[in-house]
Structure formats: C-alpha cells, structure tokens
Amino acid sequence: MRTAIREELVGRSGSAENMWRGTGGPQGILISSVLDPGLKHYEGKTIAQIAAAENKDALDALMDVVIACKDHVGAVYFTMSEDDVKYAMQQPFVSVGTDAGAVNFQGPLSESKVHPRAYGSFARILGRYVREQHLLTLEQAIRKFTSLPAQRVGLHDRGILRAGAFADITIFDPNTVNDVATFEDPHRRSVGIEYVIVNGVVSLEHGKVTGQLGGRPLRGPGYGGSPQSR
Q: Which domain holds residue 51?
C-alpha cells in the first residue's frame, strides 16, 4: 500500500489534484491537529520537520503520522500565491469567507492548533490589504464581508444596515484592527474590534465576550425544509 501511495503522489504526472505536489512537497504541509494526546508533538510541525527529526524519508514520515493517528489528522496546505490573493481581492464579484470552523480559544478545543484564518480572516484584510497596502477601500472590503455574500446565498435582510433588517453589526477601529493569530500560535483573537451585535444582542463588548447569544440558523433557498422553518 505504501508503494502504491508513493507512486500515486510522486510517480505520475496525471491531471488529478495532488496536494503533495501542489504544496511543493513536505515543507508545504503542516500538521495542525491530532486526536491522540500522545501525538501532540506533531502539531505545528511540517512533514519535512517531522521527517528530519525522526530521520525518515518524508513520505514515510507522512504515512507513519497518518497510521499513528488512526487517520485523525488535520493539516494545513500551503498552496496559495500572494499575487493571486491580491488579484482576487480587487475583483468586485469576489466575496470573503473564512473556510474555517468556529473554535473556542479556551478549554479542550484550544489544545489543538487550527488555521489562523479561524480568528483573523476579516481583520487581516482590514489591516493588511485596506489600511497598509491600500489594495481596496474600506467600503469595498465591508461589502465583500456583508451584503455581497448575503445576496449571493439568498439571505434576505442580512448584511445591510436598514430599518427592518436583522441587526448584525461589528464596530471596530479602522486604525488598529488587525489579525495577530499565527500558525505557531493560532488561538489569538484579533485586535481593534470593540463590539459585535448579533440580531440586536451585544455578544462582544469592548473586545470581551458577554455570554449573550443572539444567533440563529440561517437557511438559504437551498434548504429542503418546510417554508415555516425557513
């Protein structure tokens, strides 16, 4: 089986997606989480680092990690180009999402590393691409975060400030807002965000979670339930 996997990853050119080649090899794959507490030392390390530390071939090291963790392994793949990100950011039809699950920065869920985008996606755009690089205006960025994605997925009365709409509001300082989460230390909340209001309920006040929850499931036109439950 190892021989077959190796041949599939490095022995063929093929047209199928190949994350091993897409990342440039073992230095482009970072282990973010494992289920077994005894294997936590793998977290935050690339396959190249693990292979060097254990004096193994990189692909053997990768397969050994998967086997040791019984396939419960999370990983980060470094495949993106910064120039591509900048180009996409400037397109008026491109909206923004985190592509990361919600996490708790305290308790058991904070013990595994996650992708820093779980904490810093929007703040990074506001700080890095709007304030520092002037790649797009503040208004353009906010539209990509709010009204554009809401319209795209058919969420009515969301993503826009007007009478009768749901009061989902984030209040931040454009001069200080920034992401501080890193791959080495991802469980760090962004700075410069003062208030978050969800359905009119203040959920974050002066940068601190209030414990008040105003969220509810959001169902777009693809939902298959009854009209009453939408």
A: 2-77
